[in-house]
Amino acid sequence: MAATLCQVMGFLLSLLGVAGIIAATGMDQWATEDLFDNPVTAVYSYSGLWRSCVRQSSGFTECRPYFTILGLPALLQAVRALMIVGIVLGAIGCLIAIFALKCLKMGNMEDNIKATMTLTAGILSLLAGVCGIAGVSAFANLIVQSFRFTTYADGGYSTFGGANVGGLTGSLTPRYTFGPALFVGWIGGAILFIGGVMMCLACRGMSSDGKRRYDGMAYKAASVHTIYKSDTRPHPAYNDSYKAQSVGGKQSNQRFDYV
């Protein structure tokens, strides 16, 4: 019962984690403009993995996709790859976990097969969570480095280290800080990792419960038992001793005892 509950909870957490990573990957607010001590308040810019947006004070928002791939920083491309790999691994793990649920009967599938499938799904969820957390952390490190070296009068240092991605450039280059997508990605990756751990623990419980136990029985070869009964027939009485007679007919003193 405990293994089944742990497996179902791990599966639900994995689904929630994959949904969080997908949502974070599609969001545009990975890096948002830092409004603290910002002299320009009429324009608010933010950027994500796939496009950058500018929102004006009137409420009009304009987004522009990144039309280039080779022109983007290598770290940004690596973050894209990590998030996509995390989504793929998490989706495959959830798909395997559906067929491995112990509460569902799938033909004549044995418990040890379901335990192996649960372990596979747990490992895939662990890897997906690690990929998601690594991708978000790498992007956050990129924002921190850009924030440290970007000022409002440096004349063109962009958010992504000179790639002119994510907002305004020129004498008033905005500084960027963490956006909501980063926190969604961190939480989704952590939930996905926890779900993978729970499924791995459930696999251990399922494998121990799934082992068939046979009661040992000792078989002995049939043996022929010989029964001895006491002889109750009357026996003739014998004297305890007899005197042997000599050849000449005389009795001798030699005695013989018969048993």
From TrEMBL:
Keywords: Cell junction, Cell membrane, Membrane, Signal, Tight junction, Transmembrane, Transmembrane helix. The keyword Electron transport does not apply. Its main location: other. GO terms for cellular component: bicellular tight junction; plasma membrane. It is found in: Cell junction, Tight junction; Cell membrane. The lineage of its organism: Eukaryota, Metazoa, Chordata, Craniata, Vertebrata. The keyword Transmembrane helix applies. One of its GO terms (molecular function) is structural molecule activity. This is Claudin 18.
